[in-house]
Amino acid sequence: MDLSFETIPAFVWVFITIYVIYWINNPRVNKNEPPMVPYKFPIIGHTLDYFFNAENFLAECRQKYGDPFNIYVLGQVNTIAGNEIAQEVYNTDVFNLPSAMQDIFPLHLVLKSHNPETIGQVIKTVREGITANLPLYTGRMQKQIMISINKEIGNCSNPKLIITTNENFAGIIARPLADILVGQEISKKEDVVKAFADFTKDFLSIVAIPPILSFIHPKVHIQFIALLLIFGWSPIGKHVTTLKKHLRPVLEKRLEDKKILDDKYEPPLDIIEYLMDSPEYETKVITDDYLNKICEFLFIIVVVSIHTTSSHITCALYEFAGRPELWDDIYEEQVRIDKECNGELSSQLINKMVKLDSFVRESLRNTIPVAASPHRCLETYTLKNGMTIPKGRVVQTYIMDIHYNTTTYGPEPRTFLPYHGLENNLSASKTDKNYFIFGSGRHACPGRFFAVNEIKVGLHKLILNYHIKTPSGKTEKKVQIGPFAFPPVSGLIFENRKK
Asked: From the centroid of its chain, how far is CA 49?
C-alpha cells in the first residue's frame, strides 16, 4: 500500500487519539487497593474476557488473587467482591446500588422522575402497600394467574410444545401485578397487561446498545443514549401512553367519590389508592403532570419486578421439567394442599408448600449471573481486611462465588439440592450470606416476599394442571450472555393431567 503525504496526518491523529484515550483510561490503582489483575491489551483491558468467558475468567482471578480483586472493563476499574467481602459491601451505606446502575441501566433517561428520592418512595410503597397486605392479595393473585395460564398455555389435551416460554411468563406475572398496582378494573384491560409485560423487554433494547463509547468514559455512552431519546427514539413511550389513557378516568372517579361520600368512601385495595393517600401524591385534580408522575412511579415498580420474576419462574419450570425424580414428591404436596383449601389458596397454605419452597430456593440459587448488582463507593472506604476502595469505584458482586461456595453447599456446590432449604430451615425469600438472589442485609429486595409467593402460586397451579417436561427429557442449559444468565430456549412440553 502506497502512503501519500496527505495520509500521514490522518495516521498521526489516529495515534494521538488512541494515546489520549489510553492515558485517560489508564487505571491508577493505589497500593492499599485490592490487587489489579494484569491484562494484555491497553484500553480493552479485561473486557473481552469478562463478556465472553466470564465464568472461567473470574474463577481464575479469584483463585490467584483472592477476594476482592480489580479488573479493567469498558474503560474503568471494577472491584469484584466474592463470598468473603460482598456481605460487607451490602451492609455498608457507603456502597450504593442505584448510583452504579445508572451507568448500565439508565432508567432515569426515560422515566424522568426516577431519582434516589423516588427509589426510597418505591421501597416504602412495596413494603407498606404490597408486602404488608400479602394475605389480602392472595385470592386476587391466584385468580389472575389462572386467567393468564388459561390464556398463555390453555388446553393441552395433546402435548403442546411452547417455545417462547419466558415471554409467556412475562404475561402471566404481569397480570396479578397489574391487579395490585392499578386495581381490578384497569387490570382487565389487555393492553395494560401487555404494556406491563413488554415494558422491561422494550427498555432492554436501550440497554442492549453496545457500550463502545464507554471505553472513553461511561458517561459518554449515557449521553449518546440521551441524544437518541431527545431525537425521538423511545421504545417504551407507547406503554406509558396506554397506562395514562386508562388511569385518568379511574383516578378522576375516585377523587369525585371521595368528595361525595367523604367518610363513607370505601378505598379499593391497590397501589394507586395507596399513592393518592400519601402526602407525596395527594392531589385534588388529575393534571397531566400528576398523571405522568403516577405512571412513571408505577413503571419503576414494573421494571424491577416483572422481568426478573418471569425469568425466575421460567427457570424453575425448566428445573422441574428436567428432573423427573422430583415430580411425584412435589406434585403430591400440591395435591394435598389443593384438597385442604378446595382450590382457594390462603397465605397460610402457601407457607405450607415447604417442598415447593425449598425447590424454588434451589432453583433461584442456580438461576444466577456470574457477576451482577454493581455498587458505587460514595466515599473512600477501608474494608475490614485493610484494603481500601476509593471513592467512585464500582464494586461488582461475584454471585457465582457466593452461591457455589463449598463451605455451605458441599464439595460439589453446583449439584442441584432440591431440599437444602427445607433441611436447613431456609425459605426461598430468606436472604443470608450464601444466598444473594434478592440482595442482602438492609438493602435486600423489599418485593421478594410477593415475588416468591407469585412464583409458588404459579408453579402450584401449573403442576396441578399439567405434566411438564423438556423435549430432551433432561435439564436444559441456561443461556449465558456475557456474565448474565437467561432461561433456556428449547421450550417446554405441557400436557393436561387427568382429573
From this structure: 24
